[in-house]
Structure formats: C-alpha cells, structure tokens
C-alpha cells in the first residue's frame, strides 16, 4: 500500500516492530490460490496476478510467483461436500475434477485408499514473500519514503485538516492516516475515534515437517482437505501444514497451542504416508476478519482522513497488489480503474462489515470454517507408525 503511493505522496510507514512482516505477513503459507474466497476475493486475486507475475527490475526480475498447483482432496464420505462447495469454481474452470489415481500421481505421499476425489487448481502458485517485501522496501527507499520501525502509534488527533500522530519515537503529521495495522486495527481505529468494525483476529497454527530423503517438495502440490480441516504445502526442503484452526484471539504475538500442534500432526499422519513424522517447528499467526469475510478498503464514513485497509483474512498477500492499487486510487481522489471490481464491495460502511448473514458462499479455508461445528465423521484409522 505504502509503495503504491510513495511515487507521488510523502509517505511514512510507522511500524511498531523492529522489522516489518513480523506478524501475519511473515507467518503465512505464501500461496496464491485463484479458487479461494467468495467472488469479491477471487476478483482481487485475479486483478493481482499481473503485478505478481511481472518481472520487477528493483529485485533483478526475480520471480515473485512459482508454480505449485493445489488439490482439494475428498475422502469417500466428503465427495458430496467437495462437489457442492466447488460447483461455481468448477463451472468457471478454476478447478478441474481428478480421480484417486491422478491424485496419487501428483501427490504420491497420500495414503493409499485415503482420497476418492480431487479438484485440481493448476494456477495455484507460491509467493516469494521475501522478494515481495524487498520489492516494496526498495520502491519506498527509491521514492524517498520513510520506513520507521520500532515506532508504535500511541495516539492521534485531527487538527485543521491534518492528523497529528504521536508515536513512541516522536510526532508525525499527515492529511491521511492509513490504518493497516492487521490484528490491531480496531485499537488503532479507536485512537482516531472511529467506530468498531467488529474485526475478529483468529489464530492459525503452522507446522513444518521434514520430508523423507528422496522426496522433492518442489514437484508436489498443496493439498487441502475438502472440509477445511487441514492443508499441507510442500516447500523449502519440507512441508508446511496446518490444522486449519480458526480460534478467536485478542491481537497479540500469536503462539501455537500444543493441542493445535497435536491435531495438525494427527491430521497429516491420517492423510499422508509419512511414518513417524513429527513437526520440527511450529508457529501461529492471526488472520483478521470482518463479518462477511471480505477485506475492508476505504475511507471511514465518519472520521475525516482516516482510511481502513484491514480484514484481509487468509488472502492479504495474494490480494495485496489489487487492494493497494484500489486504496491508492481512492486516497488520490481518483476513480479506481480495475475492470470487474467495484470499490463499494470493500467499503467500511457496507452492511456486510457487521452482518454475518451477508457472508457469501465460499469454499474451504476462509470463512466457511468459522461455521464449523464439531461432528462425528468417518475417518480412516491411522495405521501404527
Ligand atoms: C498461518 C497463516 C497463513 C496464511 N497464508 C496466506 C497465504 O498463503 N496467502 C495469503 O495471501 N495470505 C495468507 N495469510 C494471510 C496474510 O498473512 C494476511 O492477510 C496479511 O499478512 C495481512 O497483512 P497486514 O499487513 O494487514 O498484517 P500484519 O502483517 O500483521 O501487519 C500489521 C502490522 O501492524 C503493526 N502494528 C500494529 N499496531 C501498531 C501500532 N499501534 N503502531 C505501529 N504499528 C502497529 C504490527 O506490528 C504489524 O507489523 C495467512 C495468514 C496466516 C496467519
């Protein structure tokens, strides 16, 4: 967002931590999925592809995206659910059905007999988060913008059309404040006197497994459970996994709970043939949602000069180019030129911000899992390792 504005505005990024990316951005699965989210999120993902796929001279044209592929995987008892949840995205050609043999060919680590049906997204791509951050950092530096770390916003007041922002390192003044403070956005909003959006941070746990010698993670797709109970993503010499937890949390430096680590490990062992495998590392991050699960990008309707860029849930990185472009246009007072996207979809004053009844149909792994209720289900017994 900051680097989308820095060419023609004086921009200062105020970051409480010593390094940007310490919280959600540095704890993600680093994937871009075309199929994820309701239609408004899919439109943002699509609109972000050109930027993410382009070569950028500032990072020596290092690719931001690399091929991965993703399979939504169903056991026998989950096939109906998978077909129902993927009806729209299959009709749009975003995913194609594949059978158990094709799943085994693409992901030989799936236990024999576990998967009955898959929906394959060929366009799922890894995002190089480090390269993306370097790109934005270099753009900011080149434009003369300031990236001020160890600088916590403590209070702010509006005087004569200008925000006076008090931080732990001094005062800053600007006509517009952009609230992009992730899980803390409600707190920062209240410093400006803005009404609550009902933003809810939710913890998600990450696990990292080493893979057996001879297994090359570069060739394996991401695998997502049809009911959103886990996913795994092969990467960097191993495999990231999560029990796809969605536990409401206050804003904090999130840590993994042992129960979630155990649950994630169990689910991975049930679905994949990885004898004796245990996570070598675990972490947690917060994904923040408003009621309809769609990001918020726009000026506060009541508080002058206060802009919200929050509630990106589990798609904040893959949608960042489009959201940053939209936000920059609105802040410059221009009509955003993004075909197929209506900025009103993301307005902080849309009814869906606070009304969960306006949540749109979704596939696994974003908001649908907030509706999860415990239920008995047939699950293959994990053979003794
Ligand atoms: C486990 C997990 C997996 C994910 N996987 C993906 C994925 O594969 N693809 C994808 O697109 N997205 C994914 N996401 C979501 C993505 O990480 C987030 O949507 C995105 O990082 C949000 O970015 P942000 O800048 O709003 O939040 P953050 O990265 O949390 O940044 C907010 C910043 O605001 C700062 N801040 C807060 N309060 C103050 C204050 N008072 N003063 C100064 N600074 C302050 C914080 O220090 C923080 O650095 C995942 C998230 C998690 C947790």
UniProtKB/TrEMBL annotation:
<dbReference type="Pfam" id="PF01266">
    <property type="entry name" value="DAO"/>
</dbReference>
<dbReference type="InterPro" id="IPR036188">
    <property type="entry name" value="FAD/NAD-bd_sf"/>
</dbReference>
<dbReference type="GO" id="GO:0016491">
    <property type="term" value="F:oxidoreductase activity"/>
</dbReference>
<keyword id="KW-0560">Oxidoreductase</keyword>
<dbReference type="GO" id="GO:0005737">
    <property type="term" value="C:cytoplasm"/>
</dbReference>
<feature type="domain" description="FAD dependent oxidoreductase">
    <location>
        <begin position="7"/>
        <end position="329"/>
    </location>
</feature>
<protein>
    <submittedName>
        <fullName>FAD-dependent catabolic D-arginine dehydrogenase DauA</fullName>
        <ecNumber>1.4.99.6</ecNumber>
    </submittedName>
</protein>
<dbReference type="InterPro" id="IPR006076">
    <property type="entry name" value="FAD-dep_OxRdtase"/>
</dbReference>
